[in-house]
Amino acid sequence: MAAAGMATELVNTAPGVWHGEDQLPDGAALAVFAGEHGLSGEDDVDAVHELRDRLRAVLDLRDADDIERAASALVARGLGSVGLEPDERGRLQWIARPAADATLADRLALIGGVGVLGALRALGPERFRDCASDTCSGVFIDTSRPGRRRYCMPDLCGNRANVAAYRARRRASGGLS
Ligand SMILES: [Zn+2]
């Protein structure tokens, strides 16, 4: 489910999500993000921003057929070939390989699209959710086993909501702060 995680992470680098600022403002930031996902490249900032908007539109969908169609279009954009490769335990798995001339944005489209399709088929459209934080416009795919995730970035949005709730309780009970 790493590919679905990449899709969530990329979408939530957009301005307006948690920090408010664009987390992929330039080639240097993009190179770091790409490196974290086993890719390289930094020249593609505008194309990646455009892809980010398209991927966001996919994660905003809540109907399984709509998600399937939109994610398939993303996969088609970067797909070169599909083949069987052994995983670390020697079991064969289908692998989607990017086209030889695929740009970084095309490769991210392929990974994100495959991740969305895999999560949709394994977990269902109800795992596509809005962040529960009042101050965050993020979205995410919940790939956790229990499926009870509420925040796009649990460490950030979840804590912030907890802090806000704690302060509100203190105020309500007249406690000193
Ligand atoms: Zn959030």
UniProtKB/TrEMBL annotation:
Signal peptide: none annotated. Residues 127-170 form the Zinc finger CGNR domain. Coiled coil: none annotated. SUPFAM superfamilies: Jann2411-like. It comes from the Bacteria. PANTHER family: BLL6575 PROTEIN. This is CGNR zinc finger domain-containing protein.
